[in-house]
Design a protein that fits this description.
192 residues; alpha/beta; Rossmann fold; eight-stranded mixed sheet; 6 helices; 34% strand; globular
């Protein structure tokens, strides 16, 4: 079994909770959406089913995006190099992906998203907090405090933040399923 088959076994097609809550609470226009780090397309498929007329999915792995779905525009590129078209999207999300990048790359992504959102458009994402097992164990991931996450949102109106701590499943770099302590911070922000 390869890494993506194992990942699919763990997460299935259930969308990330931050996506569901953000759509219900903050996203009113549903023209175009962008999924950065789309993986198995579970969030992109959900967005397509929620009335978005255009769903764009970006991921660097062609294997991860092998879960093709009609109606989703696929881009095979690292999310840190993807430049969204100006004033295009009503909703942009990045779930369980940003922590693999450097803090500088993440800051650039926030600014690229700001350019790509329409006025009133919403960005939702999550990052690792300082207590996450991968951070504590010294793995090559980026982590944030609430203050440093808020600093990334320069130019946005912050609609909400969240923190989650739980024991759960994760795949290691070899695709082996194991248990870990997750500490994640999330932010939902809007382009003025």
């Amino acid at each position: 079994m390869n890494q993506w088959e194992a990942y699919n076994r763990v997460v299935g097609n259930v969308p990330n909770s931050i996506v569901v809550h953000t759509l219900n609470d903050f996203v009113t226009r549903r023209s175009a959406s962008l999924d950065l780090g789309a993986g198995n397309l579970r969030d992109s498929k959900f967005l397509l089913g929620q009335g978005f007329t255009k769903v764009v999915a970006v991921d660097s792995s062609k294997k991860s995006l092998a879960f093709l779905t009609e109606g989703i525009e696929l881009h095979f590129a690292p999310i840190e190099t993807f430049m969204p078209e100006k004033n295009t999207f009503d909703f942009v999300l990045s779930c369980n992906t940003l922590f693999y990048l450097t803090p500088e790359q993440i800051a650039d992504i926030f600014q690229n998203v700001l350019v790509g959102l329409r006025s009133g458009g919403v960005f939702a994402c999550n990052v690792l907090g300082k207590e996450d097992d991968w951070v504590v164990q010294g793995q090559q991931v980026s982590s944030f405090s609430e203050e440093t996450l808020m600093a990334l949102a320069t130019g946005f109106d912050v609609l909400g933040t969240g923190e989650g701590k739980n024991r759960g499943q994760a795949l290691d770099s070899l695709g082996v399923l194991g248990r870990k302590y997750w500490h994640q911070l999330s932010i939902v922000a809007q382009k003025p």
